[in-house]
Amino acid sequence: GRPRTYEESFEQGGAIRTYLTVKFPLRDESGQAFAACAVATEVTALRQMQEELRSTAERLELALAAARLG
Questions:
Q1: I need a labelling partner for 8 at 20 to 30 A (CA). Which of 18, 21, 39, 58 fits?
Q2: The whole model's pTM is what?
């Protein structure tokens, strides 16, 4: 198969952590898969910042719309 990327969340130490995980087969010289491999990168803080940015942009849009009405 081809590499696949997943976003996965798990509880760790009482908090939910989010990871981007790439899963892919390891192949021998002939191209045959002999093992599976995964590499995970924690993106919890990135996802939190993205949500804060989305929320801030939404509030800004509401404020600008209210200013145009007034």
A1: 58
A2: 0.69
| CA-closest candidate to residue 22, choices 36, 34, 38, 43 | 38
Residues 29 and 8: their CA atoms lie apart, in Å, by 31
Strand partners, 17: 10
CA dist., res. 46 & res. 19, Å (int)? 10
Between CA 15 and CA 9 the distance in angstroms is 10
* Nearest residue to 3 (alpha-carbon basis) of 33, 42, 44: 33
- For 20-36, what is the mean pLDDT? 96
